[in-house]
Specification:
The chain is an all-alpha fold. It is built from 4 helices and no strands. It has one domain. The protein is extended.
């Protein structure tokens, strides 16, 4: 059974906890591994500050821009 939770913005407390974990990952954690691999954790923090609707809008804008770029690339083919 799949449980679907309603998406809502993080509370100030949840956001503070998440940012603290991203700024100071525990040794041996997946967050630390991602940081060592080169993942920019500040980008994750920026996204967490947005509401789910704002994140979805951003994803939609990027998808539309990619589709336009694909269309332009197809138009330039001979």
């Amino acid at each position: 059974m799949v449980v679907i939770r309603e998406c809502c913005a993080l509370t100030a407390e949840q956001l503070a906890r998440a940012e603290e974990r991203l700024r100071n990952p525990r040794a041996g954690s997946r967050i630390e591994a991602a940081q060592r691999f080169g993942v920019d954790l500040t980008l994750l923090m920026e996204q967490l500050r947005l509401s789910p609707a704002e994140r979805a809008r951003g994803i939609e804008e990027v998808a539309q821009a990619a589709e336009q770029a694909r269309g332009a690339a197809r138009g330039n083919r001979v």
